[in-house]
Amino acid sequence: MDLDVAYNVYRKCKENGIPLTPNLYTNLLSLTAGLGDPGCGSLMRRTAPPKDYHKAMEIYTSIRQLNIIPAEAAFSALMRCCCSEGHKEQALELYEDMKRLGLEPKLRGVTALVAAYGAAGDTSTCFYLFDEMKTKLNIDPTEKEYYSLLQACAIA
After folding, report:
1. Rounded to the nearest 5°, which phi and psi values hold at 140?
2. Where are the alpha helices (DSSP H) in the chain?
3. Which of 78, 121, 127, 154 has a C-alpha 20 to 30 A away from that of 16?
4. DSSP-assigned letters across all residues of 44-74
5. Backbone angles phi, psi at 49, to 5 degrees
6. Distance, C-alpha 98 to centroid of its chain
7. C-alpha dihedral (145, 147, 153, 154), degrees to nearest 10
């Protein structure tokens, strides 16, 4: 699906007072955050799916104003989008929001956070996230998370 076409349809619906279903909002959030077309996770991609941080955040704001809880995958895509665009603090806020809403973060979302804070040399946040993974989320860290943790320590 084309990100710009989908976003323009969303804007027209919003302008004309046409309500969208929670599922459509979640899919649109996933698309604008860079998750890609639904069901394409098993396909080998040659390029990263398109993303638009500003559009994704606009849609997330609308979703939360409507008290819609997006799926974990959409949250994870949005956190990765924030991290890749240099908004790691916002990604951490999304992570905390996700937990408050009763969604359990998965490795795919936490990895981006650990990497972003590791690259910034923020050992405190890296160790916080690493501890959360192991003790609260029961997620086994992979090489990527250990690398990010070591990177944070080396920079600090």
Report:
1. -80, 120
2. 3-15, 22-33, 53-65, 72-84, 88-100, 107-119, 123-131, 143-155
3. 78
4. PPSSPPP--HHHHHHHHHHHHHTT----HHH
5. -65, 155
6. 10
7. -160
Which tokens go with 71?
A: 């799926």
- Model confidence pLDDT, tens digit, residues 48-57: 677 899 999 9
Crossing angle between the packed helical segments 123-131 and 107-119, to the nearest 10 degrees? 160
CA distances from 18 to 21, 24, 63 (A): 10, 12, 14
Q: What is the tens place of the pLDDT at every residue in 24-77?
A: 999 999 899 987 544 444 455 566 677 899 999 999 999 999 999 999 999 999
Token pair for 30? 């996933």
CA-wise closest residue to 152 among 129, 126, 113, 131: 126
* Cα(70)–Cα(22) distance, integer angstroms: 8
